[in-house]
Amino acid sequence: MGKRSEIWSVAFFLILFAGALALTFSWHGKQDQFTRKGEIWADKAGYYMYLPATLLYQFDVEKAPQDIEKQTGSGFIINWENQTFETKYTCGVAVLLSPFFLLAHGISLVFSLPEQGGFSPLYHAIVNIAAVCYLILGLILLKMVLAKYFSQLTQYLAILFIFIGTNLLYYALADTLMSHVYSFFLFSLFLYYTQKFLESKTYSYFFLIALSGALAILVRPTNLLLFTVFFFLDLTGWRDLLKRIKIFATPKYLITFILVLFLVLLPQFIYWKYVHDSYLFYSYGDEGFTNLTNPKLFEVWFAPLNGLILYSPSVLIILAGIVFMIWRRNLNGWFFLILFLLLSFECASWQTWYFGCSFGQRSFVEYYAIFIIPFAFLLESAINQRSRILKTVVLLFLVAFSCYNIQMTSIDNKCFFGSTWDWNNYFRQLERAGIPVTTSPVISFSNDFENQALIGDEVVSQEIVRSGMYSATFDEEHEYCCMAIKYIKDFPQDNFPEMVKASAWVFYPDSVFSGATLVFSVEREGNSLKWEGIDLTNLITTPNSWQQVSAAFTIPEKIAGDTKLLIYFWNPVKKSIFIDNLEVRYE
Predict the structure, then answer these.
(1) For range 197-203, the mean pLDDT
(2) Three state DSSP letters for 186-246
(3) Closest residue by Cα to residue 331 from 381, 374, 383
(4) Long-range residue pairs from 261-268, CB within 8 A, at least 24 positions apart, any chain
(5) pTM to 2 decimal places
(6) Strands annotated E in 451-498
(7) Sequence-distant (≥ 6) Cβ neighbours of residue 530 within 8 angstroms
(8) Domains, the chain
(9) Mind listing the pLDDT tens digit for each residue in 101-159?
């Protein structure tokens, strides 16, 4: 690289770094800490907990701020009986974050700043800085990887658009304590040193491969697919594959890998022993790959509920690049295709295939470090074409997909409050993002009880279901279920609804009993303006079968914007009933 190229490279990444920092602080400056949109909340608090527990409390639960687990969204728990801090998440993110945590601790001590047990504003801010640093380091490594294959222009375009055109943008700048940007850095590091090792067979490069790979597993155990890169990237044929397997199995390399993996995972083994009295422990309880025989592939790719392509359409460029590589007889194309399908199957087999409150399919974020190669391959091919029309078309798609991603990211609608295929809800998200769409004027709500964001405190069951894995039910502590709430202010003034139409599928397992009711209620400031209920025995006569119930209710005229319309089921008898596929339409 010439001196001029080095200056351009430094300037490019400095601008990217400054821009990312400005955006993340602008983003979080609008959010309150200790809320759903804060840096340290829920899952993120579960990743973070290791740092204050180890470095500030020395695992003494008495030193933790009062109710800190509740203030941070219950991402971890303090077990007062056993005197332990408990989280289901591994400690990899905390390991990578530790230098920044220590920096915040040092600044707090030097300037006598309140630490709030490691949860002060400074500790929240340092998380954002850490995420941006790992993002930029990962992108720098990827530029060096791409330099082997592509021109300078392609390298810069690929790096820019893989960042702003995918949900990497969201997980680097908004959800800065989720594991994905840290995994992205480790994937980039692994990819870079794999490339270097395959060229030179230098032992130190293999050590760094083992270290980055082991850390990636510590951050997220499902990152195991990363190791396919070592065996299949830039493969020339079967002999080359056998050669790589033999190299890996060489005692010098194999022992190094095992030792590094063991030492990196050792802190996790010790933590599990401390909490669960076992060095090996599956901390996710009943969660697992329950969809292995029925993977939700189409949902993972296309569903309004966090579908990959709907939220990161730049993935279409990646897929086109893979197809083009295969067409050009580049063996890497087959590797990338199989990796994409394996990753999709892994996600689709997980019990919560949409991964809770997420922006798109977040499990793909770290793999963009690998898929940037077919992404860049298509860009390079387009750039080298003589046809200006083709170049313009590819550029327009890149810009359009990136603008779409930026707009969708900007509304910060991380949780999709709709059922799996709720297109109306998805189109309303597009409208809020300023993306023009043609939709029906009917506002609707649907709940198939698969989406945790919609379930809340309701009781769900896998015992009897009509579709998917879950249905709603009742128990001794829950006599209400399936709540659908809309505020009058949510409706456009020129399309104010007159009716509410509700339908659901209901299953009485033993006998049809009276008392359970489908309710429509209009409430304002705690007062009931209207209450109307229909006994389900008027709609259902046969037990032990799914039957659809439907009802229509009139919305009162001239009611204030803070009035809410509620549809729900009320079962004061608390006998067993199962409900699935609730649909509510406001017309």
Answers:
(1) 95
(2) HHHHHHHHHHHHHHHCCHHHHHHHHHHHHHHHHHCHHHHHHHHHHHHCCCCCHHHHHHHHH
(3) 374
(4) 261/210, 261/213, 261/214, 261/217, 263/214, 264/211, 264/214, 264/215, 264/217, 264/218, 265/214, 265/217, 265/218, 267/91, 267/95, 268/90, 268/91, 268/218
(5) 0.91
(6) 459-461, 471-473, 480-487
(7) 520, 521, 522, 556
(8) 3-404 (no CATH), 444-586 (2.60.120.260)
(9) 999 999 999 999 999 999 999 999 999 999 999 999 999 999 999 999 999 999 999 99
| Residue 276 three-state SS | helix
List Cα–Cα distances, 283 to 43, 88, 222, 278, in angstroms. Answer: 14, 5, 14, 11
Q: Is 525 left (phi over 0), alpha (psi -120 to 50) or beta?
A: left
Q: What are phi and psi of 202, to 5 degrees?
A: -75, 130
Are 482 and 579 spatial neighbours (Cβ–Cβ below 8 Å)?
yes
List pLDDT tens digits, range 459-476: 888 899 998 888 999 888
Distance CA 185, CA 140 (A): 10
Residue 129 CA to residue 468 CA, distance in Å, equals: 40
Q: What token pair was written down for 301?
A: 């790719």
Please give the backbone phi and psi of residue 365, each rounded to the nearest 5 degrees, phi first.
-55, -50
Exposure string of 424-445, with b = 16+ CB inside 10 Å and e = fewer, is: bbbbbbbeebeeeeeeeeebbb
Contacts of 209 (CB under 8 A, 6+ apart): 190, 193, 194, 197, 230
185: Cβ contacts below 8 Å, ≥ 6 apart: 96, 134, 135, 137, 138, 141
Interatomic CA distance for residues 177 and 26, integer angstroms: 16
Q: Find the range with the poorest average confidence among 242-246, 286-290, 442-446, 459-463.
A: 442-446
For the chain, the 3-state helix, strand and coil shares in percent, each to the nearest 5, are 50, 15, 35
Structure-block tokens of residue 512: 């049809």
